[in-house]
Automatic annotation (TrEMBL):
<dbReference type="GO" id="GO:0003676">
    <property type="term" value="F:nucleic acid binding"/>
</dbReference>
<dbReference type="InterPro" id="IPR038538">
    <property type="entry name" value="MTERF_sf"/>
</dbReference>
<dbReference type="GO" id="GO:0009507">
    <property type="term" value="C:chloroplast"/>
</dbReference>
<keyword id="KW-0805">Transcription regulation</keyword>
<comment type="similarity">
    <text>Belongs to the mTERF family.</text>
</comment>
<keyword id="KW-0806">Transcription termination</keyword>
<keyword id="KW-0809">Transit peptide</keyword>
<keyword id="KW-0804">Transcription</keyword>
<dbReference type="InterPro" id="IPR003690">
    <property type="entry name" value="MTERF"/>
</dbReference>
<dbReference type="GO" id="GO:0009658">
    <property type="term" value="P:chloroplast organization"/>
</dbReference>
<protein>
    <submittedName>
        <fullName>Transcription termination factor MTEF18, mitochondrial</fullName>
    </submittedName>
</protein>
<dbReference type="GO" id="GO:0006353">
    <property type="term" value="P:DNA-templated transcription termination"/>
</dbReference>
<dbReference type="Pfam" id="PF02536">
    <property type="entry name" value="mTERF"/>
</dbReference>
């Protein structure tokens, strides 16, 4: 289950990503003439679209001035001249018609690299299908910024299949809720589906409850009077509101709650809001609960959930876990205890299998406990860990080793001597270890159980994900055993699949099926027994067992190591 909605990720990618690299076709032109070359090429394209293709001047200008990459590709083969470049481009266009949709899609704000996948097949000119351009012109005429129309197109392409008359009717229907043009534009950019239509009175079933919420927020609670009168400001505030609907909060039900906590949307940048949602999503709780937690307790956005140090046992005590349960945890999860960073708290709790408990404590009135928690100077210091940490600083590869240690802390291992023992046996960079850990989670391992496996058998993390996946598949499908068996015998994942696991298991299966072996050997006994002891066992099972083993089952190549 994805606990962080795809659309929330898109908020980052669309609004906080760096701009694309500028095209390099202009590098053939001397740098002092490039501004002139760009202006001349844009003017030539605008003249061509308006005078030759009969596109209204204002829209021809929008397309020409906002399609830099397409324009760059167009002029790459045209010789530059300080006196005649504009004419050269016009002459080229006269004999080499452009794909007008390509320039259009880039001009409305769609990334140039995505444009190719949106181009209609067998159509080059707007005259072949004017619907898209007419829709864009209608929206632009209402006040939508031309270079933001791509947001609407990518999310709700059906908007651009509607006639200009239909779009105007939908826009004025939204205005009737009490909004002027600029708020309507901000709402539509953040919630493109309000322009999709297709319902009673051209407003679909999910749109009316949304608009009721927005009326409550912007008009009844007067949030609108605090928003600057420009499209960007309204779009920004509506994006923040949309985050909560993307989390699963019900449309038509949270307008009053948003209105009573309007400072949340006025004071905090979207990055802060999304980063806190990301943090709580790591507790693996229903995403709607995360949204309601923040809506009801906006002050939680002020909390530093990244840098403070915590004591794991101190945090459990702080949130009211009983002495009996804390003693049980100390015995069962000693590798999690000690200090860690607040940013790792969700995974610390997952390692203890207490993530839902802690989140519910926060949600049900104990939210201030996070902000109020403080670590005493001498609390939970582990001397063995500190001594080992000092040795790392003077080792040959301190940076590499610290990256591995940071990974272990990130997945829930605390500052203790047991963590240092695990550290000594895991190999690879921090990012490689994280990739291997994540791949194991993807195979179905429970987080808490996987941490225990890593504690018991650290070398599990020393193998590439594909190798481990093959072993897990063999365990599940051919051996018919669930992942729970690895709680008992995690070292299974460290043995070579082709040279040890497969031949031994299949031979024992053959012996059992043919009535030659009546004893039920465990998987651990079959796989982990040393080679000499294994051969001796076969001799005791049946006189002919050895010959059968060497002739038909044993791995043929000489191999000094049966572990990966």
């Amino acid at each position: 289950m994805n606990f962080f909605p795809k659309l929330i990720f898109s908020h980052f990618s669309r609004h906080f990503a760096t701009l694309s690299k500028l095209p390099n076709n202009f590098t053939k032109i001397p740098s002092r003439y490039r501004p002139q070359a760009i202006r001349d090429a844009q003017q030539a394209l605008m003249d061509y679209l308006h005078c030759t293709r009969y596109i209204p001047f204002v829209y021809a200008e929008h397309i020409a001035k906002n399609s830099f990459f397409s324009l760059s590709s167009l002029i790459s083969g045209i010789k530059f001249s300080t006196t005649s470049f504009n004419r050269n481009v016009l002459r080229f266009l006269r004999y080499h018609p452009i794909n007008e949709y390509e320039f259009f899609f880039e001009s409305i704000g769609i990334d140039y690299e995505e444009v190719g996948g949106l181009l209609p097949s067998k159509k080059f000119f707007f005259s072949e299908d004017e619907t898209v351009l007419e829709a864009a012109c209608a929206l632009s005429g209402f006040g939508f910024p031309w270079n933001k129309l791509g947001k609407l197109y990518k999310e709700e392409v059906l908007i651009f299949k509607a006639s200009s008359k239909e779009l105007k009717a939908r826009l004025f229907k939204i205005k009737e809720c009490g909004f002027s043009n600029i708020p309507v534009i901000g709402i539509c950019l953040a919630f493109p589906y309000v322009l999709r239509g297709g319902g009673v009175n051209e407003l679909g079933g999910e749109i009316v409850p949304l608009l009721n919420d927005l009326k409550r927020v912007f008009l009844d609670f007067d949030l609108g009077s605090h928003v600057e009168d420009n499209v960007d400001a309204w779009y920004e505030i509506c994006r923040k509101i949309r985050v909560f609907y993307d989390l699963g909060c019900e449309k038509g039900k949270i307008g009053e709650l948003i209105g009573r906590n309007k400072n949340l949307f006025l004071q905090y940048p979207e990055e802060v809001l999304v980063s806190k949602i990301l943090y709580f999503s790591r507790f693996l709780v229903p995403k709607e609960d995360i949204g309601m937690l923040i809506l009801r307790n906006p002050e939680i956005l002020d909390s530093d959930l990244e840098t403070p140090m915590i004591s794991v046992m101190g945090m459990l005590k702080h949130f009211g876990l009983s002495v009996k349960k804390r003693d049980s945890i100390a015995k069962e999860y000693p590798y999690v205890l000690g200090r860690n960073k607040m940013t790792n708290l969700p995974n610390v709790m997952r390692a203890l299998n207490l993530h839902e408990w802690l989140f519910n404590r926060i949600k049900n009135g104990n939210r201030r406990l996070l902000a109020n928690y403080t670590l005493k100077d001498d609390e939970d210091l582990d001397k063995g860990f500190r001594d080992s940490l000092e040795k790392i600083q003077f080792s040959r590869t301190p940076v590499h080793t610290m990256e591995k240690l940071i990974f272990l802390h990130r997945v829930g291992f605390g500052e203790n001597s047991l963590t240092m023992k695990v550290l000594a046996h895991v190999h690879g960079t921090g990012s490689e270890l994280q990739e291997r850990f994540d791949s194991l989670l993807g195979l179905g391992f429970e987080f808490s159980k996987l941490c225990r496996i890593v504690h018991m058998t650290p070398k599990v993390l020393n193998q590439c994900p594909k190798t481990v996946e093959q072993k897990v598949n063999f365990l599940r499908h051919e051996m018919g055993v669930s992942l729970d068996y690895l709680d008992i015998f995690p070292a299974f994942l460290c043995f070579n699949l082709e040279k040890r696991i497969k031949p031994r298991y299949r031979f024992h299966k053959w012996l059992t099926e043919n009535g030659l072996c009546t004893r039920n050997y465990s998987i651990a006994s079959i796989v982990a027994t040393g080679e000499k002891s294994f051969i001796a066992r076969l001799g005791r099972i049946h006189p002919d067992a050895l010959n059968k083993w060497f002739e038909n089952f044993s791995y043929k190549e000489s191999d000094s190591s049966s572990q990966d």
